[in-house]
Amino acid sequence: MSLAEPDLAASIEAYRQGEFSVEALRALDASRPVRIEPDVVMPLELRKQLVPAGELWAPSLVGNSPADALAPWMLAEAKSDPQARGYLGWRSYIDAVWACDKQASERVQLRFAELENLMPSDARFEELKEHCRF
């Protein structure tokens, strides 16, 4: 990959060496937009340094923009399709975890409202509500 995309070489090497940092992401973001979808493997200390960028997260304050609520048609689809409900629920849950870690209350409230609609009695959601109070 680094031969085909030389501007990725420093980031790839930092990742391989276990030295991946927000600085490495910011350096890459200077030449191409870096946007990150929330997941469960991003280390807490790294994700706390990211900022909201719409539905994703970014290493730079330039990308700081609010998320939108799920569209009504998405919620309607989720009500009738368990797979869509699971995907959207998981996506909202992980984003809520990240927002909670950053104490981003508006984003937490948005995602909690989605989860109340999608999976109101989910055990992980209940635990998150107990943990994420500010």
Plain-language structure description:
There is one protein chain. By secondary structure, the protein is mostly helical. Helices cover 54% and strands 4% of the residues. The protein has seven helices and two strands, in the order H-H-H-E-E-H-H-H-H. The protein has helices at residues 9-16, 22-29, 44-47, 72-80, 82-101, 105-118, 123-131; strands at residues 51-53, 56-58. A two-stranded antiparallel sheet has the order 1-2. Helix 4 packs across helix 5 and helix 5 (82-101) packs antiparallel against helix 6 (105-118). The longest helix has 20 residues, at 82-101.
In short:
Helix content is 54%, strand content 4%. It has 134 residues and is mostly helical. It has a two-stranded antiparallel sheet with strand order 1-2.
Protein traits:
single chain; 134 residues; mainly alpha; two-stranded antiparallel sheet; 54% helix; elongated
